[in-house]
Design brief:
Number of helices: 12
CATH class of the largest domain: Mainly Alpha
Shape: globular
CATH topology of the largest domain: Butyryl-CoA Dehydrogenase, subunit A, domain 3
Order of helices and strands: HHHHHHEEEEEEEEHEEHHHHH
Largest sheet: 4 strands, mixed
Bound molecules: acetoacetyl-coenzyme A
Helix content: 40-55%
CATH architecture of the largest domain: Up-down Bundle
Strand order of the largest sheet: 1-4-5-8
Number of strands: 10
Radius of gyration: 21 Å
Number of domains: 3
Amino acid sequence: MLNFSLTEEQEAVADMVRQFAEKEVYPTIKEYDRQQEMNPAVMPRMAELGILGINIPVRYGGQGFDYVTLGLVCEELERVDTTLRVVMSVHMGLNSMGVLQWGTEEQKQRFLAPQARGEKYAGFGLTEPGAGSDVAGMRSTAVRDGDDYIINGEKMWISLATKAHHILWFAKTDPDAQPAHKGITAFMVEMDMPGVTSGDIHGKLGVRAGSTGWIHCDNVRVPAANRIGEEGEGFKIAMSCLDNGRYTVAAGATGLIRTSLEASLKYANERETFGKPIAQYQLIQQKIAWMTQWYDNARLLYLRVGWMKNEGIRNTREVSMAKWYATDQSFKAANEAIQIHGAYGFSDEYDVERYLRNSRGAIIYEGTSEIHQLMQAGYAFGWRKDKPLRCELPAYDPDFWTE
Ligand code: CAA
């Protein structure tokens, strides 16, 4: 049976997040975007409102909502500001859900619970200066030493690099493994461990009010108890985390399409040329129609993934499709919104120029559009097939989640 309706609870959470973003974040976005600084009030407020643990079971410090709710939250956040959704992508999608999937019970209590309560912020250390799409080309190493591992390496383009307390760090425990991806292991690196340093990157095209940076590990001693999964499982853990991160990116980019559409509708009704509102010109209407089509398609694609996650169905193909589609279309929607706004769209007096800049990064991070096209072709030809994992993302079980 197909059911496209949302529950009252899901709508109430989306409404709460919309109010928060509109009232508490929107008024100062331009200021923080210009300063290239993250609004320091944002993450504590997201924690206070329960957003940082929205879909984590209550027993692990979360709010106990389902995966569809997470998507709706991300859509509402990015409708107002991409930097808010990026927080959810790394803290929740790439880290917390990974611990929910792969962590031991002890690790869930030690790492996941404080993250879900918003006492600790979480990040994801996969990308390196010389390894982005080619994950297995990473140089970071972890060498076993008694009950510890000694980690060395450098991560780059890391969201929340200077804000997070816990980083899910990927390193090679077997640099000679063939194929190379089998030599990677995952660790929870705590940012106050001796030898960890980090810094912010400025001068980005978009997400300027967000935190993006680098992290170095210089002989960092990490207890084996912080290893997530088994040695050699790191690549699969990273990819499964990306299945969750990509979901949040897809839902967020859907929100960016929606806000570009909303801004365009408002402006087209107000602005007059040749004696009538530009909304009455068919070439403007065509752009509006495209945006509505992109929004509906993007929303359906991410909601399908949310439903699959709730049911415990593997969704690597579907989430790749949703992320690829929504991010490409969000860039196009923001571009059309600028065209509708004419010269005003070119200035930061209006929001649409920021939407265009903010839409651009998501076409690169969490899998470039080119990587997603390769994946989709692989599935279509039958070369790419998903294998069952040792630990699957748990299906949403309301009793387990809320008790
Ligand atoms: N979940 C679990 N396991 C998976 C998986 C998934 N989604 N996808 C693949 N695997 C497993 C496979 O089953 C396979 O297992 P076996 O060793 O048992 O055979 C293994 O992983 C290797 O898989 P592939 O053969 O598919 O790997 P590949 O070398 O063909 O490459 C790729 C895959 C699609 C290119 C992949 O490397 C990829 O997605 N690259 C993009 C990386 C990316 O998205 N980086 C983003 C960084 S994070 C970020 O941007 C966040 C931020 O802070 C801004």
